[in-house]
Design a protein that fits this description.
Helix content is about 35%, strand content about 25%. By secondary structure, it is an alpha/beta fold. The chain has one domain (about 25-205): 3-Layer(aba) Sandwich (Rossmann fold). It has a 7-stranded mixed β-sheet with strand order 1-2-7-6-5-3-4. It starts with a helix and ends in a 6-residue tail after the last helix.
Length: about 210
């Protein structure tokens, strides 16, 4: 009887935790707005200038490298590997710069993945899902979107306790440029642009503006 009681208690706790997770319903879902997809779980986000905003460097470990994978069609691993290490820093730097410019927040910083967030802060974290250098030759000779480079990310906005306030995803493509454009340059530029995109979203959300 005691075993049955304890087992029932454990199952009850697990079910309660699962129920709490599943009961978190989206307040709004926006497609093709300031980001490709935004799902918000709270009506509003803290918006006082003193609220600390922390972006943890996005992970690039599990990203799909496309033509930059080992044995890929054009075997461009150098560009892809460079973005796996440098892309998170470039994205975070642009996010910090843009959000400080757009406001309302004035305390904005970036940090390593494992660094604890200050109490009362808002934490932005995520990962690169695609880092594809594409084909410079196709961009130059074919055009019309052929050979495009691609950078995609997905992420979350959380409070300092880990509660999810919003989720998002965003993709940027590099299409043309002089001589088809430099793949590494396009990937870096797109990583930087995504950092700006995420900052624009958070700024608009905090100010109560449309996310579309």
């Amino acid at each position: 009887m005691r075993f049955v009681f304890v087992l029932g208690l454990v199952i009850g706790i697990v079910n309660a935790q699962d129920s709490g997770t599943k009961s978190q319903h989206a307040v709004k879902t926006v497609h093709d707005g300031l980001l490709d997809e935004i799902v918000v779980y709270v009506a509003s986000v803290p918006s006082t200038p003193e609220t600390a905003i922390v972006m943890r460097h996005f992970s690039g470990l599990d990203a799909d490298l496309g033509t930059g994978s080992e044995g890929g069609k054009e075997e461009r691993p150098i560009e892809a590997k460079t973005i796996k290490s440098e892309g998170p820093k470039v994205l975070a730097e642009q996010f910090v710069t843009t959000l400080k410019e757009r406001g309302p927040y004035t305390t904005v910083s970036s940090t390593d993945v494992d660094t604890a967030a200050p109490a009362g802060s808002i934490v932005v974290e995520g990962k690169f899902t695609t880092i594809d250098p594409g084909s410079r030759a196709k961009r130059y000779f074919v055009g019309f979107g052929a050979g495009k480079s691609t950078v995609s990310v997905s992420g979350t906005v959380k409070d300092s306790t880990g509660a999810v306030l919003a989720t998002f995803s965003q993709t940027r493509h590099g299409v043309m440029g002089m001589g088809g454009g430099d793949s590494l340059g396009k990937l870096l530029a797109d990583s930087r642009n995504i950092g700006e995109d995420i900052a624009e979203f958070l700024s608009a959300w905090a100010k109560g503006k449309a996310l579309k």
